[in-house]
Amino acid sequence: MISDVLNSNELHKIDPVFGQLSFDNHEQIVFCNDKDTGLKAIIGIHNTVLGPALGGTRMWQYNNEWEALNDVLRLSRGMTFKAAITGLNLGGGKAVIIGNAKTQKTPELMRKFGEFVNSLSGKYITAEDVGMTTEDMDTVREVTPYVTGISQSKGGAGNPSPVTAYGTFMGMKAAAKYKFGTDILEGKHVCVQGIGNVGEALVEHLTNEGALVTISDINEDRLKEVSDKYNASIYRGNDIYSEEMDIYAPCALGATINDETIYKLKAQVIAGAANNQLAEEHKHGTILRERNIVYAPDFLINAGGIINVYAELENYDRKEIMRKTENIYNTTLEIFDYADKNNITTQAAAFNIANERIEARKKANS
Ligand code: NAD
Predict the structure, then answer these.
(1) Which of 5, 110, 294, 326 is most exposed by smallest CB count within 10 Å?
(2) How far is CA 160 from CA 18, 97, 102, 156, 307, in A?
(3) What are the structural domain ranges in the chain?
(4) pLDDT value for 11
C-alpha cells in the first residue's frame, strides 16, 4: 500500500481532504468554483452539534490550494471550540476565498459566493474575516439570509472588529493579572503585530490605558496612519519575536508561534486576536508552559466578534454584547486556574472545557 511507504507527514499530499493533517473529523467540506466570476472558495463545516456552523470568510492570496484547504480546516475547527467555550449555541465553520482581496474581489464574485452559502440552507452562516468588509457581507446578504456582520443600517450588528479587540483586551488584562499580579497595563510594553481592523482598535485600548505600544505590519501606510494617531512606536526590524517586550499580541495571521520563533520570544504573556497562533497546539503550548510564558488561548479571547454577530441571530442588544465580551476576562482566569490544577497547557484547558459542553449536548441530543 502506498500509505505504508509514506510517513504521516506525507500522507496529506496523497489524501487531499481526509488525509490532511488538519482534518479533525470535519462534517463537510464544500469546494465552490465559478468560472465566470473567478470564484474559488472552500467552506469548512467542522461541527454542528451546538448549532449552525458560523464563521467568517477569509480572502487571501494563498501560495497554493493545499494552503487554502489547510487554513479552512484549522479555522473552522477553531470556531467550534470558540463558540463552545463562549457559551454560544453555534457550531464551527469557516470559508476561504482564494485570491487577492484588493484586486480580485468584485460584487459579482461575492454574490456568487453567497449563492454557494445559500445552497447549504443555513448549515453554514458566514461573516467577515481577513480581506472582507461589512459592505461585502451586505452584498452577500442580497442572495442569502445566512450571513451576519452586515451593516447596522441594514439591521446588522456592524463591524465585529472593535468588539473582537475589546474581548482581546479583556483576555490580555486577565493574562496580565495572572502573570504580573495586576491587570493594569500602564507602563507595560506591548507589541501588536498586525494593525488591521482588530489590531488598531486594540492599540487604542492599550494607549488609553497607558501601555507602551510597538506596532508592526507589512503595510507601510497602515503603520504610518496608526503610529500618527496613537503615538505608537513602529517596529522596523525583521525579527519581532526577539524584541524585549512584556506582552506579544499577534493580530495578523496564524501560526506565528512555531519552531522558529518560540525560543526567541522574550514576552512573558501572549495575548492577541489572530486565529490559530500556535503552529502545533500541543507541542508549542507545552513549550510555552515550560518557558513560563502565559498564553491566553486565541479562540477564547478573540470571541468578541462572534458574540457580536450572534446578536444578529439572537436579537440581543449592544449592552448585552459588551457584557458577554467583558466576561472573557473571567473565563480566561478560569482557564488558567483549570490548566494549573490539571497541569496542562492553557490551550488544552480551553479545549477540554469546550469539549465537555459539546459532548454534554451530544448526549442530550441523542
Ligand atoms: P485585517 O485584514 O483587517 O488586518 C490584518 C493586518 O495584518 C493587516 O494590516 C495586514 O497588513 C497585517 N499583516 C499581514 N501579514 C502580516 C505580517 N506577516 N506581519 C505583520 N502584519 C501583517 O484583519 P483583522 O480583521 O484585523 O483580523 C486580524 C486577525 O484576527 C486575523 O487572524 C483574524 O482571523 C482574527 N480575528 C478577527 C476577528 C474580527 O472580528 N475581525 C475576529 C476573530 C479573529
Answers:
(1) 5
(2) 32, 20, 20, 10, 9
(3) 8-76+91-156, 162-303+332-353
(4) 57
Determine whether the shortest distance from the Cβ of 98 to ligand 1 is under 6 A: no
Grid coordinates belonging to 6: 509514506
Question: Rounded to whole angstroms, how far apart are CA atoms 177 and 120?
Answer: 44
Whole-number pLDDT of residue 238 = 87
Tell me the C-alpha distance between 215 and 329, whole Å: 24
Ranking 3-17, 62-76, 247-261 by mean pLDDT, the lowest is: 3-17
Assess whether 94 carries a catalytic annotation.
yes
* CATH match for 8-76+91-156 among 3.30.70.270, 3.20.20.380, 3.40.50.10860, 2.70.150.10: 3.40.50.10860
**pLDDT tens-digit series, residues 271-325:** 999 988 999 999 999 999 999 999 999 999 999 999 999 999 999 999 999 999 9
CATH number, span 162-303+332-353: 3.40.50.720
Distance from the CA of 192 to the center of ligand 1, in angstroms?
11
The rounded mean pLDDT for the chain is 94
Q: Measured in whole angstroms, how far is the alpha carbon of residue 68 from the centre of its chain?
A: 15
In the predicted model, what is the mean pLDDT of residues 111-117?
A: 98
Residue 20 has what pLDDT?
A: 81
Domains 8-76+91-156 and 162-303+332-353 share a fold: yes
Q: Look up residue 258 and give its three cell numbers.
A: 512555531
pTM of the model: 0.90
Among the options 35, 40, 82, 94, which is catalytic? 94
Cell 479533525 found at: 24
Q: Is 170 in the pocket of ligand 1 (CB under 6 A)?
A: no
> 61 alpha carbon to ligand 1 midpoint, in Å?
14
Query: For 229, phi and psi rounded to 5 degrees?
Result: -70, -40
